From TrEMBL:
Residues 7-212 form the NAD-dependent epimerase/dehydratase domain. InterPro entries: Epimerase_deHydtase (IPR001509), NAD(P)-bd_dom_sf (IPR036291), NAD(P)-dependent_oxidoreduct (IPR051783). GO terms for cellular component: cytoplasm. PANTHER family: NAD(P)-BINDING DOMAIN-CONTAINING PROTEIN-RELATED (PTHR48079:SF6), PROTEIN YEEZ (PTHR48079). It comes from Gallaecimonas pentaromativorans. This is Nucleoside-diphosphate-sugar epimerase. GO terms for molecular function: aldehyde dehydrogenase (NAD+) activity.
Amino acid sequence: MMSNSKVLVLGATGGIGGEVARHLADTGWQVSALARRQVVGEHPAVHWLLGDAMDASAVAKAAKGCEVIVHAVNPPGYKNWAGLALPMLEHTLAAAKAQKATVLLPGTLYNYGPDSFPLIDEAAPQQPLTRKGVIRVAMEQRLRAFADEGGQAIVVRAGDFFGPRAGNNWFAQWVRPGKAVTRVVNPGSCGHQWAYLPDLAKAMVEVLVKRQQLPAFSNLHFEGHWDSDGKQMANAIADVARRYTGKAPKMTGFPWAWVPALGLFNETLRELNEMRYLWQQPVRLDNSQLQALLGAEPHTPLHQAVEESLRGLGCL
Protein backbone atom coordinates (compact mmCIF):
# COMPACT_ATOMS: atom_id res chain seq x y z
CA MET A 1 0.00 0.00 0.00
CA MET A 2 1.36 3.42 -0.97
CA SER A 3 1.30 6.37 1.42
CA ASN A 4 1.82 10.12 1.22
CA SER A 5 2.27 10.43 4.98
CA LYS A 6 5.28 12.21 6.40
CA VAL A 7 7.53 10.36 8.85
CA LEU A 8 10.67 11.17 10.85
CA VAL A 9 13.16 8.36 11.48
CA LEU A 10 15.62 8.78 14.34
CA GLY A 11 18.49 6.31 14.12
CA ALA A 12 18.35 5.94 10.34
CA THR A 13 22.13 5.43 10.17
CA GLY A 14 21.70 2.24 12.21
CA GLY A 15 20.52 -1.22 11.24
CA ILE A 16 16.80 -1.24 11.92
CA GLY A 17 16.35 2.54 11.55
CA GLY A 18 18.02 2.53 8.16
CA GLU A 19 16.05 -0.49 6.95
CA VAL A 20 12.75 1.06 8.06
CA ALA A 21 13.62 4.41 6.44
CA ARG A 22 14.43 2.74 3.12
CA HIS A 23 11.26 0.66 3.10
CA LEU A 24 9.13 3.64 4.05
CA ALA A 25 10.62 5.60 1.14
CA ASP A 26 10.12 2.65 -1.24
CA THR A 27 6.42 2.55 -0.36
CA GLY A 28 5.76 6.24 -0.92
CA TRP A 29 6.18 7.83 2.50
CA GLN A 30 7.81 11.25 2.77
CA VAL A 31 10.81 10.31 4.91
CA SER A 32 13.01 12.65 6.91
CA ALA A 33 15.97 11.31 8.88
CA LEU A 34 17.95 13.08 11.59
CA ALA A 35 21.67 12.32 11.83
CA ARG A 36 24.64 13.80 13.69
CA ARG A 37 26.80 13.68 10.57
CA GLN A 38 26.40 14.32 6.88
CA VAL A 39 25.04 11.25 5.12
CA VAL A 40 25.74 10.53 1.45
CA GLY A 41 24.99 7.60 -0.82
CA GLU A 42 21.84 6.50 1.00
CA HIS A 43 18.30 6.17 -0.38
CA PRO A 44 17.71 9.16 -2.71
CA ALA A 45 14.16 9.66 -1.45
CA VAL A 46 15.20 10.05 2.19
CA HIS A 47 15.60 13.69 3.24
CA TRP A 48 18.56 13.89 5.61
CA LEU A 49 18.72 16.56 8.31
CA LEU A 50 21.69 17.40 10.50
CA GLY A 51 20.86 17.18 14.17
CA ASP A 52 21.19 15.23 17.40
CA ALA A 53 18.43 13.27 19.13
CA MET A 54 19.79 14.74 22.39
CA ASP A 55 18.81 18.20 21.11
CA ALA A 56 15.10 18.67 21.82
CA SER A 57 14.81 21.65 19.48
CA ALA A 58 16.42 19.72 16.60
CA VAL A 59 13.98 16.84 17.04
CA ALA A 60 11.01 19.21 17.30
CA LYS A 61 12.04 21.03 14.12
CA ALA A 62 12.63 17.81 12.18
CA ALA A 63 9.25 16.40 13.26
CA LYS A 64 7.13 19.29 11.98
CA GLY A 65 4.28 17.98 9.85
CA CYS A 66 5.05 14.32 10.64
CA GLU A 67 2.32 11.78 11.35
CA VAL A 68 4.81 9.19 12.62
CA ILE A 69 8.15 9.25 14.45
CA VAL A 70 10.24 6.07 14.36
CA HIS A 71 12.43 6.08 17.47
CA ALA A 72 15.21 3.68 16.43
CA VAL A 73 18.07 5.72 17.89
CA ASN A 74 20.54 4.30 20.42
CA PRO A 75 23.23 6.04 22.48
CA PRO A 76 26.39 6.65 20.36
CA GLY A 77 28.68 3.64 20.56
CA TYR A 78 25.96 1.85 22.58
CA LYS A 79 27.43 3.53 25.70
CA ASN A 80 25.90 5.55 28.54
CA TRP A 81 22.41 4.15 28.16
CA ALA A 82 21.52 5.40 31.64
CA GLY A 83 22.36 8.99 30.72
CA LEU A 84 21.08 9.16 27.15
CA ALA A 85 18.32 6.67 26.35
CA LEU A 86 15.44 8.21 28.31
CA PRO A 87 16.27 11.86 27.49
CA MET A 88 16.31 11.03 23.77
CA LEU A 89 12.92 9.33 24.09
CA GLU A 90 11.52 12.33 25.96
CA HIS A 91 12.51 14.58 23.04
CA THR A 92 10.71 12.23 20.65
CA LEU A 93 7.59 12.18 22.81
CA ALA A 94 7.54 15.97 23.14
CA ALA A 95 7.76 16.33 19.36
CA ALA A 96 5.13 13.62 18.85
CA LYS A 97 2.75 15.35 21.27
CA ALA A 98 3.16 18.67 19.43
CA GLN A 99 2.49 17.02 16.04
CA LYS A 100 -0.09 14.47 17.27
CA ALA A 101 2.19 11.84 15.76
CA THR A 102 2.36 8.09 16.38
CA VAL A 103 5.63 6.84 17.93
CA LEU A 104 7.07 3.49 16.81
CA LEU A 105 9.80 1.87 18.94
CA PRO A 106 11.75 -1.28 17.98
CA GLY A 107 11.54 -3.41 21.13
CA THR A 108 14.05 -5.88 22.59
CA LEU A 109 14.18 -9.13 24.56
CA TYR A 110 16.18 -7.36 27.29
CA ASN A 111 12.89 -6.40 28.97
CA TYR A 112 12.26 -9.99 30.05
CA GLY A 113 13.69 -12.30 32.67
CA PRO A 114 13.48 -16.10 32.89
CA ASP A 115 10.07 -15.89 34.59
CA SER A 116 8.63 -15.13 31.12
CA PHE A 117 10.52 -17.89 29.26
CA PRO A 118 10.41 -19.96 27.11
CA LEU A 119 7.48 -18.49 25.11
CA ILE A 120 6.91 -14.77 25.65
CA ASP A 121 3.50 -13.42 24.75
CA GLU A 122 2.61 -9.76 24.46
CA ALA A 123 1.22 -9.59 28.01
CA ALA A 124 4.19 -11.27 29.71
CA PRO A 125 5.56 -9.50 32.81
CA GLN A 126 8.68 -7.43 32.20
CA GLN A 127 11.16 -8.22 34.98
CA PRO A 128 14.61 -7.68 33.46
CA LEU A 129 17.90 -8.95 34.87
CA THR A 130 20.18 -6.34 33.33
CA ARG A 131 20.82 -2.60 33.56
CA LYS A 132 19.94 -2.10 29.91
CA GLY A 133 16.80 -4.16 30.39
CA VAL A 134 15.68 -1.88 33.24
CA ILE A 135 16.16 1.14 30.96
CA ARG A 136 14.23 -0.49 28.12
CA VAL A 137 11.35 -1.26 30.49
CA ALA A 138 11.36 2.37 31.65
CA MET A 139 11.22 3.49 28.01
CA GLU A 140 8.16 1.35 27.33
CA GLN A 141 6.51 2.55 30.55
CA ARG A 142 7.02 6.09 29.32
CA LEU A 143 5.40 5.14 26.00
CA ARG A 144 2.40 3.76 27.89
CA ALA A 145 2.13 7.02 29.80
CA PHE A 146 2.31 8.94 26.51
CA ALA A 147 -0.57 6.81 25.22
CA ASP A 148 -2.55 7.45 28.41
CA GLU A 149 -2.02 11.18 27.80
CA GLY A 150 -3.73 10.93 24.42
CA GLY A 151 -0.91 9.84 22.11
CA GLN A 152 -0.35 6.60 20.21
CA ALA A 153 2.70 4.40 20.77
CA ILE A 154 3.61 1.10 19.11
CA VAL A 155 6.36 -1.32 20.16
CA VAL A 156 7.37 -3.99 17.63
CA ARG A 157 9.64 -6.43 19.45
CA ALA A 158 12.06 -8.83 17.79
CA GLY A 159 15.00 -11.10 18.54
CA ASP A 160 18.62 -10.61 17.51
CA PHE A 161 19.04 -8.69 14.27
CA PHE A 162 20.83 -9.83 11.14
CA GLY A 163 20.82 -8.52 7.61
CA PRO A 164 22.96 -7.05 4.81
CA ARG A 165 23.13 -3.65 6.58
CA ALA A 166 22.54 -4.70 10.16
CA GLY A 167 25.41 -2.81 11.81
CA ASN A 168 26.39 -3.85 15.34
CA ASN A 169 24.84 -7.25 16.09
CA TRP A 170 25.52 -10.81 17.22
CA PHE A 171 25.47 -12.20 13.68
CA ALA A 172 28.47 -10.06 12.75
CA GLN A 173 30.32 -11.46 15.79
CA TRP A 174 29.92 -15.02 14.51
CA VAL A 175 32.07 -14.32 11.45
CA ARG A 176 34.77 -11.80 10.47
CA PRO A 177 33.29 -8.95 8.39
CA GLY A 178 35.27 -8.39 5.21
CA LYS A 179 36.79 -11.88 5.36
CA ALA A 180 35.79 -15.23 3.91
CA VAL A 181 34.04 -17.41 6.47
CA THR A 182 36.55 -19.91 7.84
CA ARG A 183 35.13 -20.08 11.35
CA VAL A 184 31.67 -19.67 12.87
CA VAL A 185 31.51 -18.68 16.55
CA ASN A 186 28.23 -19.78 18.16
CA PRO A 187 27.51 -18.28 21.62
CA GLY A 188 24.53 -20.54 22.40
CA SER A 189 23.28 -24.11 22.33
CA CYS A 190 19.52 -23.73 22.75
CA GLY A 191 16.52 -22.17 21.03
CA HIS A 192 17.06 -18.58 19.91
CA GLN A 193 15.06 -15.90 18.10
CA TRP A 194 16.46 -14.04 15.06
CA ALA A 195 15.03 -11.16 13.04
CA TYR A 196 16.05 -10.58 9.43
CA LEU A 197 15.99 -6.80 9.22
CA PRO A 198 14.42 -6.40 5.74
CA ASP A 199 11.51 -8.59 6.88
CA LEU A 200 11.20 -6.78 10.22
CA ALA A 201 11.24 -3.38 8.51
CA LYS A 202 8.48 -4.46 6.12
CA ALA A 203 6.40 -5.68 9.05
CA MET A 204 6.88 -2.38 10.89
CA VAL A 205 5.79 -0.36 7.87
CA GLU A 206 2.74 -2.59 7.42
CA VAL A 207 1.89 -1.97 11.09
CA LEU A 208 2.17 1.79 10.55
CA VAL A 209 -0.18 1.60 7.58
CA LYS A 210 -2.73 -0.10 9.85
CA ARG A 211 -2.04 2.03 12.94
CA GLN A 212 -5.58 3.40 13.03
CA GLN A 213 -6.79 -0.13 13.79
CA LEU A 214 -4.61 -0.28 16.91
CA PRO A 215 -5.25 0.95 20.46
CA ALA A 216 -3.38 3.87 21.99
CA PHE A 217 -0.57 1.51 23.12
CA SER A 218 0.40 -1.67 21.28
CA ASN A 219 3.07 -4.26 22.06
CA LEU A 220 3.53 -6.53 19.04
CA HIS A 221 5.97 -9.43 18.74
CA PHE A 222 7.77 -10.36 15.51
CA GLU A 223 8.79 -14.01 15.29
CA GLY A 224 11.21 -13.94 12.35
CA HIS A 225 13.43 -17.03 12.41
CA TRP A 226 13.16 -19.42 15.34
CA ASP A 227 16.37 -21.47 15.74
CA SER A 228 14.88 -24.33 17.75
CA ASP A 229 18.14 -26.00 18.80
CA GLY A 230 20.63 -23.13 18.61
CA LYS A 231 22.40 -24.75 15.66
CA GLN A 232 20.29 -23.85 12.62
CA MET A 233 21.74 -20.35 12.19
CA ALA A 234 25.33 -21.55 12.55
CA ASN A 235 24.70 -24.41 10.14
CA ALA A 236 23.09 -22.07 7.61
CA ILE A 237 26.15 -19.79 7.74
CA ALA A 238 28.39 -22.81 7.24
CA ASP A 239 26.28 -24.14 4.35
CA VAL A 240 26.34 -20.80 2.50
CA ALA A 241 30.08 -20.33 3.09
CA ARG A 242 30.83 -23.87 1.86
CA ARG A 243 28.99 -23.20 -1.40
CA TYR A 244 31.33 -20.29 -2.08
CA THR A 245 34.65 -21.66 -0.79
CA GLY A 246 34.23 -25.41 -1.15
CA LYS A 247 35.38 -25.84 2.47
CA ALA A 248 33.36 -26.23 5.63
CA PRO A 249 34.09 -23.51 8.24
CA LYS A 250 35.26 -24.53 11.69
CA MET A 251 32.48 -24.38 14.32
CA THR A 252 33.50 -23.03 17.75
CA GLY A 253 31.82 -21.83 20.91
CA PHE A 254 31.95 -18.31 22.30
CA PRO A 255 34.63 -17.66 24.96
CA TRP A 256 32.17 -16.75 27.71
CA ALA A 257 34.69 -17.61 30.44
CA TRP A 258 36.82 -14.62 29.46
CA VAL A 259 34.02 -12.07 29.32
CA PRO A 260 33.56 -11.32 33.07
CA ALA A 261 37.22 -10.43 33.56
CA LEU A 262 37.45 -8.38 30.38
CA GLY A 263 34.20 -6.65 31.31
CA LEU A 264 35.96 -5.01 34.25
CA PHE A 265 37.66 -2.74 31.71
CA ASN A 266 35.08 -2.57 28.93
CA GLU A 267 31.46 -1.38 29.22
CA THR A 268 30.29 -3.27 26.14
CA LEU A 269 31.70 -6.58 27.39
CA ARG A 270 30.21 -5.93 30.81
CA GLU A 271 26.77 -5.60 29.24
CA LEU A 272 27.47 -8.62 27.05
CA ASN A 273 28.04 -10.73 30.13
CA GLU A 274 24.75 -9.54 31.59
CA MET A 275 22.96 -10.70 28.43
CA ARG A 276 24.43 -14.19 28.60
CA TYR A 277 21.25 -15.62 30.12
CA LEU A 278 19.46 -15.03 26.78
CA TRP A 279 21.79 -17.64 25.23
CA GLN A 280 21.53 -20.18 28.04
CA GLN A 281 17.84 -21.08 27.71
CA PRO A 282 15.23 -21.04 24.93
CA VAL A 283 13.69 -17.61 24.41
CA ARG A 284 10.90 -17.33 21.83
CA LEU A 285 8.41 -14.58 21.00
CA ASP A 286 4.71 -15.33 20.51
CA ASN A 287 3.63 -13.24 17.50
CA SER A 288 -0.13 -13.90 17.74
CA GLN A 289 -1.18 -10.25 17.80
CA LEU A 290 1.06 -9.25 14.90
CA GLN A 291 -0.25 -12.13 12.81
CA ALA A 292 -3.82 -11.15 13.64
CA LEU A 293 -3.12 -7.63 12.41
CA LEU A 294 -1.07 -8.44 9.29
CA GLY A 295 -2.31 -11.91 8.40
CA ALA A 296 1.28 -13.15 8.02
CA GLU A 297 4.76 -11.84 8.67
CA PRO A 298 7.10 -10.98 5.80
CA HIS A 299 9.49 -13.93 5.76
CA THR A 300 12.66 -14.55 3.74
CA PRO A 301 13.89 -18.18 3.82
CA LEU A 302 16.79 -18.62 6.25
CA HIS A 303 19.51 -19.61 3.77
CA GLN A 304 18.61 -16.74 1.44
CA ALA A 305 18.61 -14.28 4.36
CA VAL A 306 21.97 -15.60 5.59
CA GLU A 307 23.50 -15.36 2.10
CA GLU A 308 22.35 -11.76 1.69
CA SER A 309 23.64 -10.91 5.16
CA LEU A 310 27.07 -12.45 4.56
CA ARG A 311 27.31 -10.64 1.22
CA GLY A 312 26.47 -7.38 2.94
CA LEU A 313 29.23 -8.01 5.50
CA GLY A 314 31.74 -8.60 2.71
CA CYS A 315 32.16 -12.28 3.60
CA LEU A 316 31.23 -13.68 0.16
